[in-house]
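Report of the visiting student (M.T.), summer placement. My assignment was to run the structure pipeline on a short list of targets and document each run. The first record concerns Hexose transporter 1.
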Amino acid sequence: TSALNPIQPYCFQGTPQPLWALAVSIYAFGGPFGTVLGRFKVGSKPKIMLCYTLFFLGGLLQSLAPTISGLVLGRLTCGVASGFSTAIVPVYLGEISPPRLRGAIGTVTQFACVVGILFTSTAALGMGEGREWRALLGLGAAIAGLGGMGVKGWIARRVIKELRGLRTDEEVEKEVCYIVAADESIRKKGESVSVSQLVAGEHGGTFLFVMTLHVAQQFCGINAVFYYSTYFFAGVVSDPLAGSIVVAAVNVLATWAALVLMDRCRRRTLVLVSAGGMLAAVAGILAFTYLPSLKACGNGPLLSVVAFVAFFEIGMGPIPWLLPGEILPPESVKVAVEACCQVNWFCNFIIGLTFPIMQENFGYMSFAPFGAVLLLTLVYAAWAMPENEGGMAIAASGEGMEALMMKMGKGSLGGGGGGEHGTGGGTGGGGEWGRSGGGGYGTLEGGGKKAVGGNGSVESYKNQQEVEWKRAMEIIQRDESLQFAFVHNASSRDKSNSGEKGSRWMPL
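After the run finished, the structure tokens were exported:
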């Protein structure tokens, strides 16, 4: 994302600022095209391999580029690869992750990105005006080559059988319940919906809110910092590159904190705190830059930018990506995420292309529009965002947990009416997908009218469980869009006990 930020003073010196801005922003221009590649109906392994190949080619083109045009082509290729990765990496991580770690591992993607930003900024220390910048850009190709050799496949049947041996019956049935119920919702309402159908439907307002949050994520100005911090720190701090490294280091720490907060705080609370904190940081940037009484604080703008980045990572950064799978029904998740990805990348491109022009003409006052966006976001989120701790997509489809468990045969196994003296129990009611309970004994009160059903036979239970597992495996093997919804809902249902043994999931 920000590989060109620390090497700007050395890479193709004398390049006009508009052309350099194009080289920076063309990365985001390629993103929407990459998300379209995620539609191909092939397994995760071929997609991951293609993604690594694109990253490898892009890194190689940048490293060997004879002119700025070659650099632009390499950045475009890496942008397509990055857009592709946003569509496939969450699914792949969910496939190879043990259930109790799936939510945390999903958020590690963002953590890996910010560590990469810190690495590129630090690696540029001591860089001269020679060809060292080519080696830095070539590292991307090397990492992609190594990563491609480590890609593993996945077989749903083995994974689920392993999972079955590791968890209690209650946890196992809940896991299957989520898969099967989501599939039921999709089959009843159609395999997918279009963007126009989603906007016009009952969840249109929710989708528009998620889309607005993605627009705000980019127009709040975060990538102006990641793309151009070395540029706009010049003349404000003594060492602009050191300032960029400080920002990148704080970014890593803030992302680590976000991993902890994400499962402990409500999404709405985090968004409000994040937007409010970023707004205060923008006010600090403007105050330290333009108020005579504060200009003496030499590191004031740097500290404000650090706060800006830190507040971004705890809310405005990760939450827009989590919300589609949490507050939209399963049949809408795939199209919603794809639409949000494309809008997000387009807004990213606009910021990358226009910020240098704004900075050149308005200086730090170019952060004022970002402050206006954050103020509007704060008001809109306070008014429209539902309170959410990490809900489930199937909850949005109208299926409550009680109803789902009833279908799985875990709800209300009430017995038949007892005899006059409460001794004769009837057959308990089973779930829609479950099995009937055995005969029970009526209580003595009221002539046994409060009869309670007993348990069904063990063999009946096991046979039905085999059927449910088989169906769940078939569902997630055939339906990648369901895998996507299932993965994105994992964080809310994987809060398992700390004493649980480690997983024996076996990717091949």
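Residues 153-158, 390-462, 479-508 have pLDDT under 50 and may be disordered. Residues 17-396 form a domain with the Growth Hormone; Chain: A; fold (CATH 1.20.1250.20). I thank the supervising group for their guidance throughout the placement.
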